[in-house]
């Protein structure tokens, strides 16, 4: 027990994100190969890895350049694609409210979907998980992704990879993340709405703009569902778990101490 308590931040973070780091390598290599095929030099791939820390965004950049999409259009697509991070950041803000603005800037700069999921899960289940631990998770995942990109860039002139294979790997990864979140039953409704709206809007708009619409619609549905539960089931155990995911664990610890 004491060994765990005295663990340095970097070791706690490494243990938490090691599976993510391992899974990043093959996908990062695939992204590096595509960027190299799109005409990026190694130093450009490194810069993209550091400043556009998003697998979906990098695949979009590579595929768009390979199809001759104008830079303005790519920039606009990236803006809408990455807009979801405003929603993700909001859900973590309550855990970072005591941190300085420079810290929050560094945290926001290196946050992406996967390390967000790791940190949100740790914040929700581990009362000793700190903002520093969360930042270390982001740095370790960024390191793994960048290494994967560099390896892919070095192999890009010798190996080719089909885009459908890459899309399948990304889809499988996001399905796993959704399955983990479905342990909280209240999220089932927004997830179902998101899937249905995503399919309809992508078919309708024939672009990634449909994903942004689906994100906003499902988030709004989740918000109104929570408001409904607050108004009609204020003593609901499910609602308490939404507002304070650690409540159950803290109650068990309190009972054990007594």
TrEMBL record:
Keywords: Cell membrane, Membrane, Transmembrane, Transmembrane helix, Transport
Subcellular location: Cell membrane
Signal peptide: none
Record has Cell membrane as a keyword: yes
Membrane topology classification: Multi-pass membrane protein
Top-level division of the source organism's lineage: Bacteria
Any single GO CC term annotated in Swiss-Prot or TrEMBL for this entry: plasma membrane
InterPro entries to which the protein is assigned, alphabetical: Brnchd-chn_aa_trnsp_permease
Family to which this protein belongs: Belongs to the AzlC family.
The protein's name: AzlC family ABC transporter permease
The organism of origin for this protein: Periweissella fabalis
Record lineage: Bacteria, Bacillati, Bacillota, Bacilli, Lactobacillales
């Amino acid at each position: 027990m004491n060994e765990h308590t005295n663990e340095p931040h970097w070791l706690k973070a490494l243990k938490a994100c090691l599976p993510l780091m391992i899974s990043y390598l093959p996908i990062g290599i695939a992204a590096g190969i595509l960027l190299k095929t799109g005409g990026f030099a190694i130093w450009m791939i490194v810069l993209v890895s550091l400043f556009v820390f998003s697998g979906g965004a990098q695949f979009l950049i590579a595929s768009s350049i390979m199809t001759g999409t104008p830079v303005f259009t790519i920039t606009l697509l990236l803006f809408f694609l990455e807009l979801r991070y405003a929603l993700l950041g909001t859900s973590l803000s309550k855990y970072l409210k005591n941190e300085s603005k420079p810290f929050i800037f560094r945290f926001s700069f290196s946050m992406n979907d996967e390390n967000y999921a790791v940190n949100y899960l740790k914040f929700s289940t581990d009362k000793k998980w700190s903002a520093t631990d969360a930042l270390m998770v982001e740095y370790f995942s960024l390191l793994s992704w960048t290494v994967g990109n560099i390896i892919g860039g070095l192999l890009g002139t010798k190996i080719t990879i089909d885009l459908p294979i890459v899309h399948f790997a990304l889809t499988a990864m996001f399905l796993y993340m959704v399955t983990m979140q479905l342990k909280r039953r209240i999220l089932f409704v927004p997830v179902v709405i998101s899937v249905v709206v995503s399919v309809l809007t992508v078919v309708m708009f024939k672009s990634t703009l449909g994903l942004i619409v689906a994100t906003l619609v499902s988030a709004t549905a989740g918000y109104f569902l929570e408001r409904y539960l607050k108004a009609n089931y204020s003593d609901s155990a499910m609602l308490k778990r939404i507002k304070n995911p650690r409540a159950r664990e803290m109650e068990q610890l309190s009972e054990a101490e007594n």
